[in-house]
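Reminder to self: tokens first, then the designed residues, so the page reads top to bottom the way the pipeline ran.
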């Protein structure tokens, strides 16, 4: 993965990776519990664990909402040690599209 951020050929590479936080909109209460809960969790939360394991900085931002007002998270991931990039971009996104007043309707 290092070559994705900093290619060996000296080209620029990428500053950030954009992924969803979850594999769909927030599920109903109870969907991730019960006999099928473990399998559902694995299918639903595909995009965050690998960055927790590798120690790469990542941030989840509520940049979208469902028709019912539930937040839909977007995850930005940076190269190891580049938390500064995440904080700067997150601040710019919050200024452009503030989310502090968002609440399910």
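Designed residues (105 positions):
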């Amino acid at each position: 993965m290092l070559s994705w951020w900093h290619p060996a050929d000296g080209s620029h590479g990428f500053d950030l990776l954009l992924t969803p936080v979850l594999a769909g909109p927030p599920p109903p209460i109870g969907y991730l519990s019960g006999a099928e809960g473990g399998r559902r969790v694995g299918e639903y939360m595909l995009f965050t664990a690998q960055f927790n394991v590798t120690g790469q900085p990542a941030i989840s931002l509520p940049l979208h909402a469902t028709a019912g007002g539930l937040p839909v998270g977007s995850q930005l991931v940076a190269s190891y040690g580049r938390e500064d990039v995440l904080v700067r971009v997150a601040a710019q996104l919050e200024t452009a599209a503030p989310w502090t007043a968002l609440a399910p309707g």
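The longest helix spans residues 83-96.
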